Amino acid sequence: MEQHLFSVEGKIACVTGASSGLGRQAALTLSHRGAKVIAIARREAELAALASQGQGLIHPIAADLTDQAALAGLARQAAAAFGAPDILINAAGVNTREHADNVTPQGWDITLALNLSTPFFLAQALVPAMKEKRWGRIINFASLQSYRAFTAGISYGASKGGVAQMTRAMAEAWSPMGITANAVGPGFFRTELTAAVFADEALAAKNAAQTCIGRNGEPSDMDGPLLFLCSSASDYVTGQILMVDGGFTAK
Q: Which InterPro entries match (predicted)?
């Protein structure tokens, strides 16, 4: 019974930001458990390498997710691979790490577009098919900065604060049709997005000490939370932000 409860076998998942980091981990985790995965990112070589590890269950699509006008077409392209997705994981993101004094309109717009606008409009394009099935899962990526202000993080924090509220609003709009919307909020995981943080060993150690567990996150630490939110185990969970941060926000 428990295995069935957390099963994603036979489901169709669309994962953005799948060429690296936690998006890549999500694509592999789902495919290794029998889900068919449409992996979307910009870099073709990295996507091809990912697909080679997916046992035929990962279909790569190279696309610029900041092009909002192309998202409806991208949703149709995603559905052409295995069928209409049951699950959407919005893992793509960018952090320009600019101090408030130095934020440019271009940097602000790119950050808000990829971190906030793209997850909404891609979900909007995929939701009609989920409504027909009366079953769907939307998992957004929130952040520590959904709740806390970090140095040189004003545009990123604004976008991730928006993700938290957008997730609640998605749940209000679509959960009556069987579509749950939740978010995961990673702590400090060693990924491309956090390379600058982990390059500073003292800072990485300080972040680890801030957690209740006493270490920074490993990509596999995200597997269980994602499988919970993608499966029937979370049927009665929606509009929530699950912080996967080792207790960073508890202290």
A: NAD(P)-bd_dom_sf (IPR036291), Sc_DH/Rdtase_CS (IPR020904), SDR_fam (IPR002347)
pLDDT over 70 (residue 82): yes
DSSP string, the chain: -HHHHT--TT-EEEEESTTSHHHHHHHHHHHTTT-EEEEEES-HHHHHHHHTTTTT-EEEEE--TT-GGGHHHHHHHHHHHHSS-SEEEE---------GGG--HHHHHHHHIIIIIHHHHHHHHHHHHHHHHT-EEEEEE--GGGTS--TT-HHHHHHHHHHHHHHHHHHHHHGGGTEEEEEEEE-SB-SGGGHHHHHSHHHHHHHHHHSSSSS-B-GGGGHHHHHHHHSGGGTT--S-EEEESTTGGG-
Our answer to whether residue 156 is catalytic in this structure is yes
Between CA 46 and CA 157 the distance in angstroms is 28
pLDDT score for 193: 82
- 156, 174, 228, 248: the catalytic one is 156
Domains of the chain in sequence order: 2-245 (3.40.50.720)
Threshold 0.70, pTM exceeds: yes
Mean pLDDT, to the nearest integer, of 170-183? 98
